[in-house]
Design goal:
CATH architecture of the largest domain: Sandwich
CATH superfamily of the largest domain: Regulatory protein AraC
Largest sheet: 6 strands, antiparallel
Shape: globular
CATH class of the largest domain: Mainly Beta
Order of helices and strands: EEEEEEEEHEHHHHHHHHHE
Oligomer: single chain
Structural class: alpha+beta
Number of helices: 10
Number of strands: 10
Distance between the termini: 17 Å
Radius of gyration: 22 Å
Length: about 300
């Protein structure tokens, strides 16, 4: 059984000599060659992989590896879903990652075994224990941030007030852009438009125009999207009743929740849960995922 939506869970796969493994998995995919040699296919030029090398695939791009004829290729990997990092990632950072993922020439990113990221990946594989899942998730998140930060431009530094007296006063647009880099996505759910507008030094109507211009949608639809992703995660990880999922993710009416969910994901919450084939389990607990032959989970989440 292929584990498609295992966010921040370290897995391992063994690719027999002279055969290929194609992982059509969602999310950002981080891989490391634990042992063996092989190739990763990128357009017309294959990437040579050796012991300890790391590889990063962007969402929407299937990962295709081929083991050398001389032996098996043993690969560790984990997935990261930015939509599940609403309490960690800012709206601006997520937008930059979405844009980076669309660049054909950028991915997959190859990091040799001597690189800091590949070396940290090696340490991650050594230290992970099934009983230390919180630590494992944090270390995988740190590792992924090390790599993905290269695709997020640094914030524009503020001008030196001594150079120009006009720089003492920032425009509403500048304050809005600063807010995007500092405020994690989940905070947008708990701020009123009036409070956000005050932080930008403008009125609510002007703030709404700035928000729509940047995101292509207003604040309310943005909040609904964040709530729906939270609900989807709860449905995948728990056996909570649909009404409880609706309430806990920010919806006051289960009918509205169901219609919004179907509009966003193409199926009802109950259908989504059945598609994922999740066995019943209490909220807050995780079970060891089923693995395909030749694969093992190193950190159940």
């Amino acid at each position: 059984m292929m584990i498609r939506n295992s966010h921040l869970v370290l897995h391992e796969v063994s690719v027999p000599a002279a055969t290929e493994w194609s992982a059509d998995l969602p999310g950002w995919l981080f891989l490391r060659v634990r042992q063996g040699e092989g190739y990763a296919f990128r357009e017309k030029t294959p990437v040579l992989l050796s012991d300890g090398d790391a590889l990063v695939h962007a969402p929407g791009r299937p990962c295709q590896l081929r083991a050398s004829q001389l032996g098996d290729l043993h690969v560790q990997f984990f997935q990261v879903f930015p939509e599940l990092l609403a309490g960690t990632i800012s709206a601006s950072e997520r937008q930059h990652l979405e844009r980076a993922a669309q660049l054909e020439h950028t991915f997959p990113v190859h990091r040799p075994a001597t690189s800091p990221a590949a070396q940290q990946f090696a340490e991650l594989g050594k230290r992970i224990r099934p009983s230390h899942t919180l630590l494992a998730r944090c270390e995988m998140l740190h590792l992924s941030a090390m790599i993905l930060t290269d695709h997020i431009p640094p914030p524009v530094p503020e001008s030196n007030p001594g150079e120009n007296s006009s720089s003492l006063t920032l425009t509403a647009k500048q304050r809005f852009e600063t807010l995007l880099t500092q405020m994690v996505e989940s905070q947008w759910q708990h701020q009123t438009p009036e409070k956000l507008a005050r932080q930008c030094g403008c009125g609510v109507r002007h703030f709404s125009r700035l928000f729509r211009s940047h995101f292509g949608q207003s604040l309310i639809p943005k909040r609904i999207t964040l709530c729906l992703h939270k609900a989807k995660q709860m449905l995948e990880e728990s056996d909570a009743k649909i009404i409880d999922v609706a309430m806990d993710s920010g919806f006051n009416h289960v009918g509205l929740f169901t219609s919004r969910f179907k509009l966003r994901f193409g199926c009802t919450p109950s259908e989504w849960r059945r598609r994922k084939g999740k066995s019943a389990k209490p909220v807050g607990k995780r079970t060891q995922p089923m693995m395909a032959p030749g694969r093992r989970s190193l950190s159940p989440v």
